[in-house]
Design a protein that fits this description.
Length: 735
């Protein structure tokens, strides 16, 4: 669009400019320009850091008229830049900058070391550690001021983002007395990004890491990525896929990694790499990768020294070993602890850690896949080095829409266990389905392992308080890509946001996080916040319902995992089929993991095991996870299982219909571009929810042979139609 308004200042032009007709034209042009600017600004790129002007009902910002913040270090400069940007955005004018507070409405930011005025306040900063902060309303020389104080620069940076969040969400700035410190030490994203920029299980474009142009070109996106992560307290990132390519450890790539580290460092983020266990052979020319071989140990030590010479604050290694075909210590008859400890010794002199994944299972084992990680790792408890964390997926299978918590939580008290959540929605509709995952995270974190009596929650295992670990961590498999809106859909940004917030404090409520995110991302208008939060909070359960409720799991399409595939059977591995998991036959459905079945229940502490072992006490949401029951099994609703399952499929579809209607009503309250894309995606979701429902009912009915409950519509196509659908180019499949 070109600007029609004449801009020259000759008298004639000026007269023409103000004639009534041209004035109308000019106003129309301005309106168009404004719309264009807004549309451009509202493409989702700014995430929750839009810093939109505060609306009248949230005018809290008048108070900040002066900014006093040091800018002597890169971290201090990052905080100051963000504050200037944010304050200018929210209040419409940039605050005056000064060396000291000398007027009312000042914001004072820093540490006792960086700011004499903060030192003079004598605030108690004990217990805040390296990353915590306080935000207080104070009086400085008769001037009302807000202070963000921390022990370290990065704490002040986090506090600055907190303050900006208060402003963005319209919270009053009076009487503030906030004390925050992260409950978990390592809050880390795991990118499943390959070096050719393909993202495994990625649904938002290519990898943001532009390896080919690095280190010469530092895409400004890296800085915005760091800002977004720092704003929610994420302090680390693993740049490459767990199905790792050893090349990332070669000098050429390490130089690129160092360049990224340089951009992230001012935002308190460290880089980590996924290490391929066989790297000494692939890029080191050794004949073995045996962790007990002295040459292999030397190779890794030298590699660690080389990395730390380039990146002094390198975080360490993430390792997927002896899992799904990846190399590992068991190739040499060694244990996971042998492998992890060898790498741990290499990075220990530099303060690095090893995050060793517990996602291991083998189809050569006849044992229930859900039991294998526990069997493998529990005997190793106490044998890992101090700088090893064992990284455990939230559930025992694989990021399904719902799983019970992983039985390893609580079962390895002498080892720091790191949580691994998936942010990308491999099993929850890729990026087109609206599924807010924080309720899933919350459900797992709040689950009670009972290992040390009631209250032994998974959150307390993760934050180290249950077993007294200082080294703690939580990882999220990133949903970030090169798409303009980062996450593929506007709502998927909320999953990144919520992951960070829960990693900082696993006790936050998913609903509060949703409200916070909605206010910053869309609007502070209650007429937006309430319905949007309502949609978000219902969304994950809707996905559970239309993909398979009551404890069904792993019933998706083969390989790419797109769409329904409850009929999937055969192929290379039984534990990659659906029939392995649902075990439906003419009599009933479900995986018997009770003491009479695979006995997976016994991997939980006795009070939990007893509940899961007892069909009458097992929460119905896990019924078919733990029990094989007849189709006629009476549910708490009084309905037979078959009817209940069918009704859940329908309930899921109708929940999506409701979300769509709610969103349609928000037309005009949300900027047009984002509204339109969400609306289009919800339409896709509704079609696909219907497809899931129809295909699943067609399949399970072919097994149960039972009629549909009265009033339920039959699937429009025969089962063969659904089975014949193929999606050879569905995104994200393993390569
Ligand atoms: C599964 C994914 C696969 C990953 C694997 C893992 O389908 O792409 O490599 O997990 O976590 O969810 O290692």
């Amino acid at each position: 669009m070109s600007m029609m308004l004449p801009l020259t200042h000759s008298a004639g032009e000026t007269r023409r400019m103000w004639s009534p007709r041209s004035l109308v034209a000019a106003m129309a042009s301005l309106a168009l320009l404004a719309a264009a600017v807004t549309a451009q600004a509202e493409d989702g790129y700014d995430l929750w850091l839009r810093y939109a002007p505060a609306s009248a009902d949230t005018a809290t910002t008048a108070r900040i008229r002066q900014l006093v913040s040091p800018a002597a270090t890169p971290v201090q400069m990052a905080a100051q830049r963000e504050l200037l940007r944010g304050l200018a955005g929210v209040s419409g004018t940039a605050p005056a900058q000064a060396d000291r507070v000398n007027r009312a409405g000042a914001l004072l930011v820093g540490t006792p070391a960086s700011s004499p005025q903060i030192a003079a306040l004598g605030l108690d900063l004990e217990g805040l550690g390296e990353e915590g902060y306080r935000i207080r309303s104070v009086d400085i020389g008769g001037h009302a001021a807000t202070v963000v104080a921390a022990n370290n620069d990065v704490g002040a940076l986090y506090g600055s983002f907190h303050l900006l969040r208060l402003l963005q969400t319209g919270r009053p700035l009076d009487g503030l007395d906030i004390r925050e410190a992260p409950r978990v030490a390592l809050r880390v994203l795991n990118h499943w990004d390959n070096l050719d920029r393909y993202v495994e299980r990625g649904y938002s474009g290519q990898s943001i890491w532009d390896w080919h142009r690095l280190p010469g070109w530092l895409d400004p996106r890296y800085t915005d990525y760091a800002r977004a992560n720092a704003s929610i307290g994420i302090n680390g990132t693993v740049l490459n896929n767990v199905n790792a390519n050893a090349e990332v450890l070669t000098p050429m790539y390490l130089e690129k990694v160092a360049a990224i580290a340089g951009v992230l460092r001012p935002y308190g983020m460290r880089v980590y790499l996924s290490a391929r266990f066989s790297a000494p052979m692939e890029i080191g020319g050794l004949a073995t990768a045996d962790p007990l071989d002295a040459g292999v140990q030397r190779w890794w030590r030298a590699k660690a020294d080389e990395i730390y010479a380039l990146i002094p604050d390198f975080g360490g290694f993430l390792v997927k070993a002896n899992s799904e075909g990846q190399p590992g210590p068991q190739d040499y008859g060694r244990s996971h602890a042998d492998g992890a400890n060898m790498l741990a010794d290499a990075v220990a002199p530099h303060g690095g850690v090893v995050m060793w994944r517990a996602f291991v299972y083998s189809d050569e084992e006849p044992v229930d896949r859900a039991k294998q990680a526990w069997n493998e790792f529990v005997p190793l408890d106490g044998t890992f080095r101090d700088n090893v964390l064992v990284q455990v997926k939230n559930g025992p299978i694989d990021f399904q829409p719902r799983e019970p918590f992983h039985p390893l939580f609580g079962a390895m008290p002498r080892t720091p266990l790191m949580m691994e959540f998936q942010i990308t929605k491999e099993y929850l509709g890729f990026s087109t389905h609206l599924a807010y995952k924080a309720p899933l995270y919350e459900e797992v974190l709040d689950a009670d392992t009972h290992v040390q009596g009631p209250g032994s929650t998974v959150a307390r295992v993760i934050d180290g308080s249950l077993d007294g670990h200082a080294l703690t961590g939580i990882a999220g498999v990133a949903n970030i890509g090169s798409d303009r809106n980062w996450s593929g859909s506007h709502f998927d940004q909320a999953n990144w946001y919520a992951f960070g917030r829960l990693a900082w404090n696993p006790e936050l409520s998913s609903r509060d996080i949703a409200a916070e995110w909605t206010r910053m991302t869309f609007s502070n208008d209650a007429a937006v916040v309430e319905p949007v939060v309502g949609m978000m909070m219902a969304s994950r359960e809707a996905v559970v319902d239309y993909t398979g409720a009551l404890g069904l799991h792993h019933v998706m399409g083969r390989g790419h995992h797109y769409g329904p595939g409850p009929w999937v059977e055969g192929g290379p591995r039984a534990d990659w089929t659906s029939v392995y998991f649902h075990r439906a036959d003419a009599n009933g459905i479900g995986f018997d993991r009770t003491r009479r079945g695979s006995d997976a229940v016994s991997q939980y502490a006795p009070p939990v095991a007893e509940v899961f072992d007892d069909v009458a006490r097992t929460p119905e949401q896990f019924l078919l996870w733990f029990h094989h029951v007849p189709w006629t099994h009476r549910m708490r609703s009084g309905r037979p299982l078959w009817d209940e399952l069918v009704l859940r499929y329908d309930r899921g579809v109708s929940a999506v219909r409701d979300m769509r209607a709610t969103w349609a009503d928000l037309d005009g309250r949300i900027d047009a571009a984002r509204h339109a894309q969400v609306a289009a995606f919800l339409a896709i979701q509704q079609d696909e929810a219907q497809w899931w429902r129809d295909a699943s009912i067609a399949y399970f009915q072919s097994i149960s042979g039972l009629p549909l409950p009265a009033g339920v519509a039959p699937p429009p196509h025969p089962l063969e139609h659904y089975k014949a659908l193929e999606f050879p180019h569905a995104p994200g499949d393993t390569q």
